[in-house]
Amino acid sequence: MEASETRYLQLNQMPGVPPLELTGERTLPDVPEENYWYRRHLAVYRWIARRSAGLRLADLACGEGYGANVLAQRAAHVIAVDANPEAHEHARLRYRRPNLRFVRGLVEEFRSPVDAVVFLQTIEHMQDPEATLRGIAAASPLAYVSTPNRLTLAPQGAEKSDNPWHLREYDAGEYRALLERVFEEVRIFGVFHARKLRAHELALRLGWDRVHPALGLTRPFYERFVPAISSRDFKLKERDLEKSLDFVAVCKR
Predict the structure, then answer these.
(1) How many CB atoms lie within 10 A of CB 97?
(2) pTM recorded for the entire structure
């Protein structure tokens, strides 16, 4: 179904917190149909949070704010920056911690010194990605930068997926080349399916995508399966990057 035909709004928001609409520009919690993408991104935030105890962080292009909230559970302080007025207002009202501050602004203009910058699933949206990365490097000696893997997101042979918000998508070699023009040390991890998503992946290889339509099970199965996905159904590893879903780069200047 086309996004223009159905509006997806966040469910069950706290009083006084305006729900955000799913547009494809950013992922959202509290939208059952979006749970796969939300949990896929949340897994990366939690992976970074475990490595950020006591640090001062900046979460650039923080969107709805859920990731900054996760980081603030471990970090000493988090500045969360986003230019979108609706996302900023929602995040400011929903996520309240003494060590978490939401700022409305452009990521290209961020210059506050921090211990690490978190910049996830956004470099593919940037008009000048190298300039954006240089600004991040100027603000911090450490950056976590993620982007989808074009080889598993876009159709085979295509330059990019049909996501209208993405200006450019990368394979592992292209992504590393971009990052190494700015940072002295770059390690790239891939995001992969685990647990029930890995089992589903194997089932598809065995023909599950032919069985469930024939039995009329598609809608009831996925109405239950998608909301049940958790962040533990994804894992990060440093090999087989060409098969990964997303790249998570750990960059040092």
Answers:
(1) 13
(2) 0.95
